[in-house]
Model the fold of this input.
Amino acid sequence: MSNESAAAISAVRRDWVGEHREMYLNSGGAKGHIMDITAVGGRAFATHCLVKYIGRRSGRVFITPLCYADIGGEVVICASKGGADHHPDWYLNLRERETVEFQVATQAFRGTWREPAGAERDKVWAFMVDCHPFYASYQESTDRVLPLVMMRAQEAIPVFQASDATGTRQY
Done:
């Protein structure tokens, strides 16, 4: 996907993603966890989590809503960036840390993360595409392999608040 195409997708999504994030945070996760995203090729009951991370250059804290699936007790997210030719910032920042903080509905966790490889990745990818079909078209639009991140909860933490974020991410 060209940078121009990625910019066009970003412009359309920017307001929706920001509004979704605020709804999720302001409700403590009671709203925003399950959303109808059929308009963008998703499911009527698509699941979303929040991921909190620290900017590798800025040191600021960011919170990003992402589609997820649960497989084998791990929360799986995809670093798709709508099929852009470069990785999303949240993924690049996550790679700099050993742990991750994430929220699913009204529960937040600190945990570990990893990237599946080989046959496991193939299995997890097929599951993600089944849950969120648009990932297949995102993968077709770029030469990079869309990273999958599997997060495992280690300890419960307080749900995220809008005030936790010290930076605002442009989508």
Observations:
- Strands lie at 34-35, 46-54, 61-67, 69-71, 74-78, 99-104, 107-114, 148-157.
- The mean pLDDT is 91.
- The radius of gyration is 15 Å.
